[in-house]
User: What shape does this take?
Amino acid sequence: MFSILLGFFDTTTQDFLEDFCKKCHQINVYSASTKEEWFALFEQQEFDCFFFRFEEDLMNVRNVIYSLRSDEQHQHTPIILFSTKIEFLITAFVHWRSCECFLLPFDNEKKEALSSLLHYYVGMYQKMHLAQRKFFQVNTPKGLYNLPYNDILYVESAMKKSIVHLKSDAIHVPYPLYQVRKLIPEKNFVQTHRSFIVNLDNISYVDKSKEPWGIFFFGSDKEAFVSRSHKKTLPPFFQGTDDENQ
Assistant: This one.
C-alpha cells in the first residue's frame, strides 16, 4: 500500500491531512513531530511520499530534506511542502527538486489539487506493482529485447535512431522517434518534446522553474524535457497554474 510520512505539523493540520489522505483510499499515513521521531519511522520501513510543514522549525526540516535528497533511493521521491509563508515555499521550490508546494490555509481548489495529486501517486504505485507486465519488443543489432513498459522512463531521439531509457539501462534502437510512437501505447506514452517520448506512469516530478521544463522519474536520476508547445500533453496537475507558466 502507498505510504506517506508526515513531519513537523501542528496537531490541527496533521489531523486534517491524515483524514484527507485516508479518504483517498489505499494510503497508509504515519506522522512525526520531531526530527528524532521522523528518522525512527524512516528507518523502520519504506515510504513512497513525504509531507513537511515548512514553517518556524526551518533548520530541522531542511536537515531532513537534505538527508532525503542525499540518499540515492530518495533523490526524486515526491515531497509535498505546506506553509503559511509563500516566501518559504518559493525558496524551497528553487532549492529542492521533486517538491510540490501548497500555501496554507486550504481552500476547495487546493483540496482538489492535492486530491488529484494523491490519486495520481496511488495509481502509479499500483501500476508499478502489478504482477502482470506488458512489453515493448524491439529487434536491435545486439539482439531481441522485451522491454517491460513499466521499466521504460522515456525514449530519446538520437539522429535517425532512438534511445530507450530504462530505470537502470539504456537501449539503442534502430527506429526514429516517430516510428517508436507507433509501436508503444499512446495512452501511457506521450511526446513532450520533439526529441522525447515520456512514460506518464513513471513521472515523479516536473521541474517548472526552468525552460524547457525538466521531467524526473521514480527511482532514477535521469531527466527528460517538456517543450513549451508540448506542455498540454502532461496531466493537468503537472502543468501548473497560468501564473506559473507565464
Q: What stands out?
A: The domain at 135-245 is CATH 2.40.50.1020 (OB fold (Dihydrolipoamide Acetyltransferase, E2P)). The CA atoms of residues 192 and 226 lie 5 Å apart.
